[in-house]
Amino acid sequence: MTLLPLHSPVKIAEEAAIADILSNGRLEFGVGRGTAPVHYAGYEIPQEESRERFEEALDFIVQAWTQKHFSSHGKYFRARPDGGSETRANTPSSGADRRE
């Protein structure tokens, strides 16, 4: 489980894809927003931004796993189409487009 608003979606997408490969497709990808103010204070991120950051980061990760080329110019996270922050990793087999 990762508190997604506090981390780079590029890093999370890459690490999850690698773990999925190394585990032969057994990765269970779990993310959350977190509710403890101390977590946000430690990263100097306003907790009020948690929902927006979470949704933007999750959309970023889904795009990275499902599109051959993508770019993202969100409010909090960005990826360039020339590969500057782009990743096209193995798609974890647990359903990248599923939200619960």
Structure in a nutshell:
The protein is mainly alpha-helical and 100 residues long. The chain has helices at 9-22, 37-43, 50-66; strands at residues 2-3, 31-32, 72-73, 78-79. Helices cover 38% and strands 8% of the residues.
Description of the molecule:
The protein has one domain. It is flat. Strand 3 (72-73) and strand 4 form a beta hairpin. The strands form 2 sheets. Strands 1-2 form a two-stranded parallel sheet. The chain is 38% helix and 8% strand. With 100 residues, the chain is mainly α.
Structural features:
100 residues, mainly alpha, two-stranded parallel sheet, two-stranded antiparallel ribbon, 3 helices, 4 strands, 38% helix, flat, disordered C terminus
Topology readout:
Blueprint: E1 2-3, H1 9-22, E2 31-32, H2 37-43, H3 50-66, E3 72-73, E4 78-79
